[in-house]
Amino acid sequence: MALKIVKGSIDRMFDKNLQDLVRGIRNHKEDEAKYISTCIDEIKQELKQDNIAVKANAVCKLTYLQMLGYDVSWAAFNIVEVMSSSKFTFKRIGYLAASQCFHEGTDVIMLTTNQIRKDLSSPNQYDTGVALTGLSCFVTPDLARDLANDIMTLMSHTKPYIRKKAVLIMYKVFLKYPESLRPAFPRLKEKLEDPDPGVQSAAVNVICELARRNPKNYLSLAPLFFKLMTSSTNNWVLIKIIKLFGALTPLEPRLGKKLIEPLTNLIHSTSAMSLLYECVNTVIAVLISLSSGMPNHSASIQLCVQKLRILIEDSDQNLKYLGLLAMSKILKTHPKSVQSHKDLILQCLDDKDESIRLRALDLLYGMVSKKNLMEIVKKLMLHVDKAEGTTYRDELLTKIIDICSQSNYQYITNFEWYISILVELTRLEGTRHGHLIASQMLDVAIRVKAIRGFAVAQMATLLDNAHLLTGNTQRNGICEVLYAAAWICGEFSEHLEDPMQTLEAMLRPKVATLPGHIQAVYVQNAAKLFATVLQKHEGETDSQAAQETSQLLIDRLPLFVQSANLEVQERASCILQLVKYIQKLQQKNVEVAEEVTALFAGELNPVAPKAQKKVPIPEGLDLDAWINEPPSESESEDEKPKAVFAKEEPKHYRSRNTEVDEKELARRREVRKQEQANNPFYIKASPSSQKVYDAPGVEHIPVVQIDLSVPLKVPGMPMSDQYLKLEEERQQKEKAERKKKEKKKKREKRGKGRKADSGPESEEDITPAQHVDIVTEEMPENALPSDDDDKDPNDPHRALDIDLDKPLADSEKLPVRTHRPEVLKSPAEDRVSESVPPETKKKSSKEKKEKKKDKEKDRKRSKEEKKKKKKHKEVEEELLESQPEEPVQSEETKEAAAPPTSTSAEEVTVPSSAVETSSAAVPESEPDEPKDTEPEDTKSSKHKKKKQKKEKEEKEKKKKKRHHHHHHHGEAGGEDSVQNGTVEEEEPLPPMSNYSVLAENSFIKMMREDAEQVYDIQGNHQDESKVVVSIIFENKSDSFLKSMEFNVLDSLNSKLQRPEGAGPHDGLTVPFQLPPGVSNEARFVFSVQSIVMPQKLKGTLTFIVKSDESSTHEKLDFKLHFTCTSYLITTPCYSDAYAKLLESGDLKGSSLRLEGINMPFHHLLARICFHHHFSVVERIDSCASMYSRSIQGHHVCLLVKTSDQTVSIDAKCDEPSLLGNVLDELKQTFSKC
Amino acid sequence: MIKAILIFNNHGKPRLIRFYQYFAEDMQQQIIRETFHLVSKRDDNVCNFLEGGSLIGGSDYKLIYRHYATLYFVFCVDSSESELGILDLIQVFVETLDKCFENVCELDLIFHMDKVHYILQEVVMGGMVLETNMNEIVAQVELQNRMEKSEGGLSGAPARAVSAVKNMNLPEIPRNINIGDINIKVPSLSPF
């Protein structure tokens, strides 16, 4: 043994170490690759040795080679071996190599779990440290799950060195294993106040990183951070906290108000530029969040702008850059304060540093006004001429277009000027943005009708001088402009002065060198021009000229017919045939112009970019369904070649339409095969067949024209500058005129005092040069108002959007390995788990959670708005002041209890959390919400009472206010109509529970929530929707209930979702056991195909009753009833969209009368909202319109009217059977009461 | 979050690469090339922030770099990091290197890439800033080095001896490196 070691170390003397390898590579500059490959061979030999030192040395060298770009993943297993060495030296090498080259796809990572766990619990802190560092780089979901608990233990390690690493790595663990966030969070929060500054900094770091992505969940930490901010002296920590506040303030404006003062102090006091800069940034964020509500913060804005100006003027380029960056943030909300520094920013445009120039450009975007647009653009055009290098120039070009086109050409007063700017931009060599200019030209020409004449003239000149644009192959990008030019000239050809000349220009042989899609537009628009020319000539009864035009087309079009581009060829041959036919008619002296023009008649309207997306899919249209059943393999194979012979197609289609029996088909196929086999000219479908036609065309290609490479001034093109002068003159004149008028006015109004903003300088006063009618873009008629943010569904941070204030449930504990004693349970956790009601929350799928979150957000928002309306902010503030320690938390509970009904609703005690405190006013049922508040309430019932009192006061105030309101607007009538969603109550609503007993026996009671959570699965299964049913199981006996199994007999339409591999008749195990007297909730997912009919499913629950002496097997039958209502989702709808929907006429109506309803109207509405998932669109007196949407997108509209005791409901829906069923259910609801 | 830390010399040769997000090796090399291309054409008196670098990430990311004599230190960070803070962090890192290697120069980084990694590990962990206090960083690095030395023992000794012999025979070390000013100058700290 000893001998072996000695031998090993002697061998090692001849191994290269890292230094030797590096030296070797440096000495083999010529044949580096070869040298390295021999080294890799050596390394492979070394890795085969038993000696761990040799292996470690080899792995160390591999790490170096990895940096040079060599794939070393083949040695992954050896790396794991070195990682598991007992010596720190080698372990460190192993972990370093692993952190450099392991990733989620590395399969050997599976093997490391136990090794890492061992290292984490090593007595040597550096073993632990190295393992943590390594793990932070290659943690996978599996590792995160298995090690989360161990790392959490380390967060309370005695050594700060380990603590801070453990805290930091938790962020990575959360990302990979989101379920760990809630259990670990209390401890993480503790670490914010760790005595060691490093640990504290790490905790701040992690929480900031978390909060940046999902700020709303961390609002409750604001007071703690506020304390840290005022006490900490560590600039790193301060910067992080201040950045975090920047993310939080938009959600909680009151926080911003508190922040302004300490931040201003910091700005004045700190000497660290980094801190100063971040303070300014956050103050800006605060000001932005306050901009709507608070008027007087001009001092803070001034301070910020002033500090930023100092930064921008600094000689340090970094500060200049950052100053500009921050300036652009202010610009969004306070453009005026930035605009006064225009000089400074224009100066930055001349900076030698490109980063700074780009920043300054960004700022310019927000600084333009009607007054200075032309001037700024002129400056930019100068820069365009000077700009060296294409990237910066392209950037300038896009910026010019951005600046001009922003907010619907708001700042352009003279579109002639803009068109000439665009035309000037076409002279840029080698820009990539030809298409951008083209689309602007198209947009302006289409939407600004007044400019068409001018635009067409300009485009005609462009077409005439097309050779200047296309000459150089380098400048290809710009030829896109011709696409726009040709189209505009064609479409608006009535404005052309000399259409014949343009037509001639469009049919020049040179055109054939343009890209195909442009040629296609040329050809098509040549036809349009042709129509115009014909009409012109026939109007003048000049048949000679008309015939000449036809001849021109017949002469020139064949060039395009030979084009290799399919689109060009097709269009050209179509039009050629048409013209030939026209020529024939002309020769017979028939007037054709009218008919030819009719081909292109009709105005094109601009369509909004999202219009297509917003067209609702018509009911019954399934885009995934086959229109015709796909033909069998063999058939399709035979048919493919057919496509070449277009003439045969129609015949074939006809035969398909008439139903032909199989035999006939088979016979034909046979014949066809025979034919193909015998036909020597039969060619398989491939583009190469085209070449046969191409060959003779070569002679027709003309000799390329000689181009001047220097862009000459295109003759006849106006310079944009002249417009600037004109505009100035015009404004001057107008100003003078206005002054005259004003003087007059002044004389008249003298005594009354002038309004401040009527000065001649204000924006609105600058009148546009031409009358401009910017056509708005069209939207489909029944487009729904959906503000669907296109969030990236793959963002890992979405999974971390978890409510952290909710108490922990048992099921959420981190997985602990069973053979270990349960060491950790932080005091916070203990407390929390005690106070949790015994039911566990079933973990639901992420998708659902997110949806709920969204709903919650919506609700919060609507509530906030409501609150604002009622103007009882002051009251809230009082509350805030009274509990400075936890303002946000109290806010939340208040929110849950805010609706005026809550007091009465809370009195009703239905088993477990069946009462939906909040849902009475807000129709979305949120089973989590009451759970949120309950433990807190029990914690401090005194507190609650106080709050309730306050609420009552609030309510009264509110009432008073509303009365007041009524007085004011009594005459206005419609003023007190309710918009969107929530119903405001005049008096408290009766409690409503949406749990109903499903089945019950002496052992167990099953209650089922009426309002299932419904959601669609988008993507593959568009025809299937999923419905989640929550069922509460309550143990009524004295015995222990276990092994519960839930099973349902599937129907054709609805199926219980079973885990993969389970048969269709297998039951689902209920994931908990029930001790006596305890109830718990479980959720089951059903997939439903058709939702227009209610469904009943039979089911059984089997369970084992275990008492001290015996255990028996019991079962309970139940019937699950899926009402049509349960497929409706409460969807808010705006009244205009609602009106459009009704107008569209796609909906079928039905109505219902209910007699003897003697409940207040708003109760009735609330009931419909609550039980049937509708939302109120608008309510006027005793009439309300309501809306809901099914999970498959059916719209359901109700018009509810009441008079005396009769309620009439007119309903409309695009699916009559669904409507009928919903109405039946409505009727049932009201017959019950 | 820091997404990547790259150190390369004036010719674009990587001296240390540390990605906190997985990229395949060829992609890594491409990123290095692109980053070098972006950074190297900038004057020394322009700002140290660079937007873009399409390979590494979208608009949320920035390149923040410093140029010391022959070496570029480039950090790719997202918007959660303070720009000036990262500049200071680079300074802290370089000063730490200076302390640990005693007058650090490019050669130290070339021959002791592993050691540089170990130092970096004490500054940044998994893309997040771990420690900014230089004394603390140096202390931890030295403690670990001492531990490594104490473990050296039997198996370490011959290797060291051999490498000492090898180094003795090689006066060509400086000859191979044709760079004049090799020391990384550490300018005085900006107030932080």
Quick summary:
The complex is a heterodimer of chains A (1233) and B (192). Chain A is of the alpha+beta class and 1233 residues long. Chain B has helices spanning 25-40, 83-101, 106-111, 113-123, 134-168, 172-176; strands at 2-9, 14-19, 49-51, 62-68, 71-77, 124-125, 128-129.
Reading the helices and strands of chain B in chain order gives EEHEEEHHHEEHH
Mean pLDDT score of chain A, rounded?
A: 73
Kindly provide the radius of gyration of chain A, computed on alpha-carbon positions and rounded to a whole number of angstroms. 38 Å
Work out the number of β strands of chain A: 17
The outline of chain A comes out as: globular
How much helix is in the residues of chain A?
40-55%
Biggest interface reads: A-B, 76 and 66 residues
Q: What fraction strand of chain A?
A: 5-15%
The appropriate CATH architecture of chain B is 2-Layer Sandwich
Structural class of chain B: alpha+beta
Compute the number of strand runs of chain B: 7
**What strand line-up does the widest sheet of chain B have?**
2-1-5-4-3
Give start-end ranges of low-pLDDT stretches of chain B.
169-183, 187-192
Low-pLDDT sequence parts of chain A: 635-660, 683-718, 748-765, 818-852, 867-942, 954-987, 1011-1022
Main sheet of chain A? 7 strands, antiparallel
Notable traits:
heterodimer; A: 1233 residues; alpha+beta; Leucine-rich Repeat Variant; seven-stranded antiparallel β-sheet; six-stranded antiparallel β-sheet; 49 helices; 54% helix; globular; B: 192 residues; Beta-Lactamase; five-stranded antiparallel β-sheet; two-stranded antiparallel sheet; 6 helices; 48% helix; disordered C terminus
